[in-house]
Amino acid sequence: MPIVNIQIMEGRSAEQVSSLIARVTEAVSEELNSPRERIRVLVTEIPKTHWGIAGIPVSETMTDDDINRK
What we know:
About 35% of the residues lie in helices and about 25% in strands.
């Protein structure tokens, strides 16, 4: 049973996360020839205050619009 762990910064909509889960499931199913029903995708959203880039919390340097454009 493939298990995929994805860590993303908080700020995406429920629709975006749902689409991500569906697309990752499809890609893993195709690449590993594994039934979709056996694939698990775990998405962990990290608060911007807990995600640092170059020693600075993202909450101090980026807006939600910046994050969604990346």
